[in-house]
Amino acid sequence: MSILGRGWSFPPRFDADQRAVLCEDVPDIEESLHILFRTRRGERVMQHAYGSLLHHFVFELTNEQTLTELCSMLRLAIMYFEPRIEVETLEAVVSPEDWARVEVQLGYRVRTTNTRHNMVYPLYLEQASHPVQAT
């Protein structure tokens, strides 16, 4: 049994014997973070505060202020809803390959094992702005 927890894989999958596929330890934490980031606040029936406001940033300007607000919002969501980790670094940067993609780079420490891990969460902006290039 894992000391970090065990839960259903996300998205839910089933093995050949029709049993739910489970994940545990750090993969369980990372799946939990993905679920937290993708869930809109108010979407869960019994936990209205659970989730993030990432969808509010889709049509925002991709500037330093927006990226800072995005990181602050995610830091609070993680603090309240993922107690197994402590955020060490959290940065949002516009992808150099695709200006419509913001990469959320998260460095965290698992509290019970004191191990450090990194995760990159891509946020694809449906309509993003980018700086006008001088000609």
Automatic annotation (TrEMBL):
Domain of life, per lineage: Bacteria
SUPFAM superfamilies: gpW/gp25-like
IraD/Gp25-like domain boundaries: 28-114
InterPro entries: IraD/Gp25-like (IPR007048)
Protein name: GPW/gp25 family protein
Organism: Roseateles subflavus
